Amino acid sequence: MPEDSLTALVTGASAGLGLEFCRQLAERCDVIIAVARRRDRLQKLAQELDGSAEVHGIVADLSTVEGVAATLEALRQKGPVDYLVNNAGFSPFGQFADLPIDVQQEMVSVHCNATLALCRGAVPFMRERGAGVIINVSSLGALMTGKGMAVYGATKAFLNYFSESLQAELAGTGIVVQALCPGFTRTEFHEAMAQHGFERQRIPEELWMESAAVVQASLQAIGTGEVIVVPGEANQALATSLLAKAGAG
Ligand SMILES: NC(=O)c1ccc[n+]([C@@H]2O[C@H](COP(=O)([O-])OP(=O)(O)OC[C@H]3O[C@@H](n4cnc5c(N)ncnc54)[C@H](OP(=O)(O)O)[C@@H]3O)[C@@H](O)[C@H]2O)c1
Description:
Helices cover 47% and strands 16% of the residues. It is α/β, with parallel strands linked by helices. Helix 5 (150-169) links the parallel strand 5 and strand 6 (175-180). Helix 1 crosses helix 7 (211-220), helix 3 (65-78) runs parallel beside helix 4 and helix 4 runs parallel beside helix 5.
């Protein structure tokens, strides 16, 4: 690979926002390290991007120590990475006391532990190069509290606080840190939730976004100095009112 070739590592690359990050980053990067559990989906992605980027599929379960270690190893061997997108995630539908604790702890591991480990793995290389972009995919849910999101919302609030502090610590290094906070986005995310009672049709149509538009907003925000990035006007209006309410409280 030439000296100036760029590399991205995207977790949750087999579907939804992660798949779309791979597609849009393939326009900027020569190598994509695509991480997820479903091997067939990663193979399909490699075929789709053939000719625009070299895709290295890494089959890893990021809720496990082994899965995170395998991803870190790929980051070291195929990196250094210029873009790190910590996107893998899921949400069980239900209230804290009704959901199995192991599923909720898996969510904490995927959203928080894996993100911390990969950031810790990538930052020293980025600092050495004086450049790099880290996108931690959070959620509009990070800005609100309520029934059914005790753990999901808390993990995403963790990502927002972590991203803001990390960006402050890395000021002047050339590294950009972003916490992307999408609202309702058409992906596979709500499929499992729908099987457990989540009613998609109750969400007003104007609140839904396509993953391509969410990823575009994220990539466009790089270099603007924004850490918390909320895509879409309807979501931005909601975020403004939630933040104002929190400030007043
Ligand atoms: N869709 C929305 O409305 C919405 C709104 C706000 C925030 N978000 C956030 O956006 C991110 C992406 O979600 P999405 O909407 O694109 O959902 P999605 O279509 O269901 O995709 C989720 C991705 O995460 C991967 N993943 C899940 N658990 C994993 C694990 N244990 N190890 C490795 N990979 C794992 C899945 O891959 P495999 O199953 O192949 O492992 C898949 O590629 C999540 O962090 C989510 O919280 C989504």
